[in-house]
Write a structure and sequence with these properties.
The protein is an alpha+beta fold. The chain contains 4 helices and 6 strands, in the order αββββαββαα. It has one domain (2-112): Yope Regulator, Chain: A, CATH 3.30.1460.30. α1 (2-20) packs across α4 (97-112).
Amino acid sequence: MARTTSLTALRRDLEDAAVWLGAPQELRFKPMFGGLMAYFGERPCAWLSAGGLALKLASADQPALLAQAGAARLVARPGAPPSRSYILVPASIHRDAEHFAPWLALSAAAASGRQRRGRG
């Protein structure tokens, strides 16, 4: 039961961030592989599992999140390589909708292809 509560709490954190962004209708969830895949604007943006909440971020946005205490690359299963796209969000961030919402917005932008592009 604790795992279900954990997934429920993680889902609620994402929902609160979507409300903060003014777009709760854009968020959907689909159960898969014992967790939940979250979709924002019909594109995958996050993975919720017993291991935590991992956001899918563009390469350019990952270092800023990885610099936060407790953030790490998602490892889907023991022995698997770390994800190149999904970053585990520390609870101190995802439990605070105002702090978490900008990260969800970055994830949604990356998923929709509206990634920030550097000028060179």
